[in-house]
Amino acid sequence: MFQHRQLLFEFCLEPYRGLSVCSDSMGLIFTGICRFRLLTCVLAVAGVGQVSSANLSPNIVFILSDDQAWTDYGFMGHPDIKTPHLDKLAENSLVFERGYVAAPLCRPSLASMVTGLFPFEHGVTGNDVDGRNNRAELDLIVREAFHEYPSFIKLLTANGYFAHQSGKWWEGSYSDGGFTHGMTHGDPERGGRHGDEGLKIGREGMTPITDFIDKATEAEKPFLVWYAPFLPHRPHNPPERLLKKYRKLGRAEDVAKYFAMCDLFDETCGELLGYLDEKSLTQNTMVIYICDNGWAAQSTNAADPDQALWKGFALRSKGSPYENGIRTPIMLSWPGQVEPSRSPQLAHAIDLFPTIAAAAGLKAPANLPGVNLLDEAARKKRKTVFGVTNSIHNMKLGKPKETLQYLWCVEDDWKLILRYSGEDTTRYKNVHIWDTATVRLFNVVHDPYANDDLASSHPEVVERLKKRIQNWYDVDSHSRKSLSDQ
Known about the structure:
It is built from 14 helices and 14 strands.
């Protein structure tokens, strides 16, 4: 595009070449020619600008890790896990160390990111309707209802963006979700459920994404990249070169493998971010980072007698409302537009839709509860963030109360967790069946691992935050109330 503009300016300057003076009569003719050529040049350059006006909209690269605890990065202070590429991204980002997701489970968490709504609003509260029973058939009505809601994907593509899906995607094919390009077919007869072919990204290279970036660039289209690899999610099968880095005397093998997978995920992020640099796209690209939910290795909770109920991962991580289930760093990088810093303010996955819309100069739906994270005044105004946990592998469309397990809120240093006893028909009930207290209160700044329940010693805080939750969500009508007082 720069070359086109340069040729036009050369055309405009041509009459001046080799000329210093001219007669009055010839000067008038010369001046007229120059003005005509200059006008032609201006209009032509303006025309070029119109052709490439989409490039004024920022590209959006959405990086979403899968099953990673909020602590497990170099930039978050982990003493062992190496994440140099994400560390570099953090150096160039507005980093929210206290970010939260709407639900501690991949499918409802992703659905909330996409729509900017809570699970009880968009209807996706768990991973399946009835566990492994009739998955494909029962899921159709869930997906159909979900796709009735606006999403930032559909907003971008409706306004000229190319959009590529890779990695985790639960709601049918990439085209069902509004992407123009992608990997996931979503066909249950071919094993489609939560990403299928898309789950190869990262683990088997990055070519589908880099090819897409080239295609969008050649078409002079702004683009969205949805990079949600199956990393560091199990299977934890890292290359031996990485596993060697983390094996050491006294460290459990499940921990070493997980650490190595975090490292592998970081390497793939480096490939993606490096490609943006290579193609000179970084300057006009907003990179967003978040994790879908937390995770911790089973062996890290071996001293807990309740851990005998569940072998998949540590209790109070994935599937739970504790910090290791719902907390995540959230990062925004956009050179020249977002000042790199560390923010003490609360951020939430529901903020991504309004943030992306604002960055692209588009209008998000008026009913979204999130805030534009680029708007510092809006961030400061919010006092509290909220979330929900339902049964993991069974859900009741239109009846979220029936599978409700927890509601929670975080305000300043405090976190309140309210326990419910919704129906849980699968073995995954053991992730939370041990938790019988109806209310728990923690100071998550001083006690992020929830070792000291302060509910009995601070009843006034419990009552205040309980009212906050009640003012946010009406469980019986499964509807969100106004957030104006939050």
